[in-house]
């Protein structure tokens, strides 16, 4: 299944690459705010804005990633503490009571 998936991705890449090469002679202009224009080959503009969107997406996810790591560390610390307490209780039940703690003897 992995091989079929990789073959499909390679075929898709070759098709997109061929279309990009065919359109390299096409000049595209992108009009931005305040009259600023960007001129260049269409595939390069598309690739540039796709990469820019990718970078902005990664930057937008960064605070969430670090927040989740911090919460996971807190939960791991709590779990270790609970496991240690459970082990201590288990050890306490395994030990016989001391002679001083027996009432009425």
Automatic annotation (TrEMBL):
Q: Which residues cross the membrane?
A: 7-24, 44-66
InterPro entries, alphabetically? LapA_dom
The UniProt keywords, alphabetically, are: Cell membrane, Membrane, Transmembrane, Transmembrane helix
Q: Among its keywords, does the record have Transport?
A: no
A Pfam family matched in the record: LapA_dom
For the region Disordered, give the residue spans. 85-105
Report one GO cellular component: plasma membrane
Residue ranges occupied by any Lipopolysaccharide assembly protein A domain in the UniProt entry:
32-86
Protein name (database record): Putative integral membrane protein
């Amino acid at each position: 299944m992995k091989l079929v998936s990789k073959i499909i991705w390679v075929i898709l890449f070759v098709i997109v690459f061929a279309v990009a090469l065919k359109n390299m002679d096409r000049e595209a202009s992108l009009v931005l705010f305040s009259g600023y224009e960007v001129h260049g080959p269409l595939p390069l503009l598309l690739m540039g804005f796709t990469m820019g969107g990718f970078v902005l997406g990664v930057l937008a996810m960064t605070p969430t990633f670090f927040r989740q790591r911090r919460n996971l560390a807190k939960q791991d610390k709590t779990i270790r503490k609970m496991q240690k307490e459970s082990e201590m209780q288990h050890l306490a039940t395994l030990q016989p009571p001391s002679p001083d703690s027996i009432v009425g003897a």
